[in-house]
Amino acid sequence: MDAERLHAKNIIIMTLEEAENAAIQWRSWMCLLCGWIYDEAAGLPDEGIAPGTRWKDVPSDWTCPECGAGKEDFDMVEV
Ligand SMILES: [Zn+2]
């Protein structure tokens, strides 16, 4: 393999969706029942939610790890 090919492999091509995601700041969402905060940038790897997972992409059957509240009991908070 020549050097040019190696270099090409390292170029990251961003899709439009990825570009939009990168442009939007990470948000945090707070459980209104117990105050636990979901940080989109950090995700929740312990529960299989990768860092960088947007709140809208968190499964609808996901529940608060602290108190078991559903997504509808969370509200966006500015941090
Ligand atoms: Zn909670």
Description:
This protein is α+β, with helices and mostly antiparallel strands and 79 residues long. The protein has helices spanning 3-9, 16-23, and strands spanning 28-31, 37-39, 74-77. Zinc ion (ZN) binds next to loops.
Short recap of the structure:
Helix content is 19%, strand content 14%. It is an alpha+beta fold and 79 residues long.
Key traits:
binds zinc ion; alpha+beta; 2 helices; 3-stranded antiparallel beta sheet; 79 residues; Rubrerythrin, domain 2
Order of helices and strands: HHEEE
Q: Roughly what fraction of the amino acids lie in strands?
A: 5-15%
Outline, from the CA principal axes? elongated
Mean pLDDT: 87
Number of strands: 3
- CATH class category name of the domain at 25-79: Mainly Beta
- Could you tell me the CATH topology label of the domain at 25-79: Rubrerythrin, domain 2
Structural class based on helices, strands and sheet pairing = alpha+beta
List unreliable stretches of 5+ residues. none
- Major β-sheet strand ordering: 2-1-3
Tell me the layout of helices and strands.
Elements: H1 3-9, H2 16-23, E1 28-31, E2 37-39, E3 74-77
Antiparallel strand pairs: 1-2, 1-3
The structure holds zinc ion.
